[in-house]
């Protein structure tokens, strides 16, 4: 039996080697599966991050577009109101000019003249409330953006390139020119 015992020892060793190799193979497979699963999760995570970044970019662009739209429409609304006001005041200015000329005319009835003054003052008050202001022209330096020169005059008390006479008053609504002043400029 000694021979069998000698044979069984190498077989036991071989059995142990095979078992160890099988366990190592299983460990290798478990590690490979875990690495594969980790790589798959990492790839999914990277894909999700890319999708999130893309959606965030879309959101930011949409938000910026909306903000620009909101600002643009608010500006257009303000400009539309101002343009409508300018057109309305522009139509009223000839009436104001006629009032001023009628007040300069001689009138024998003081009650009538006082009534016209009261109406004129109400009209001027309305224009002030509408933010309409008269352009100061007489004695100021000629500005082609505010004045319309229709005449040049020599021998005046004013320096060269200064307004020496106003034929028709000019008006502004806020910062917007409604009508330039018609003036004569000293030479």
Structure description:
- The protein is of the alpha+beta class and 187 residues long.
- 66% of the residues lie in helices and 16% in strands.
- The chain contains 2 helices and 6 strands.
- The strands form 2 sheets. The protein has a 3-stranded antiparallel β-sheet with strand order 1-4-5. Strands 2-6-3 form a 3-stranded mixed β-sheet, with no helix packed on it.
- The longest helix has 103 residues, at 2-104.
- The model has no long low-confidence stretch (mean pLDDT 86).
Secondary structure elements and pairings:
Blueprint: H1 2-104, H2 110-129, E1 132-134, E2 147-153, E3 163-168, E4 171-173, E5 176-179, E6 181-186
Jot down its keywords:
alpha+beta, three-stranded mixed beta sheet, 2 helices, elongated, 16% strand, 187 residues
In short:
With 187 residues, this protein is an alpha+beta fold.
Characterize the largest beta sheet: strand count, sense, and whether it forms a barrel: 3 strands, antiparallel
**Total of helices:** 2
Strand fraction equals: 15-25%
Rg result: 47 Å
N-to-C span: 143 Å
Residues in helices, as a percent range: 55-70%
- What ranges have pLDDT less than 50 throughout 5 or more consecutive residues? none
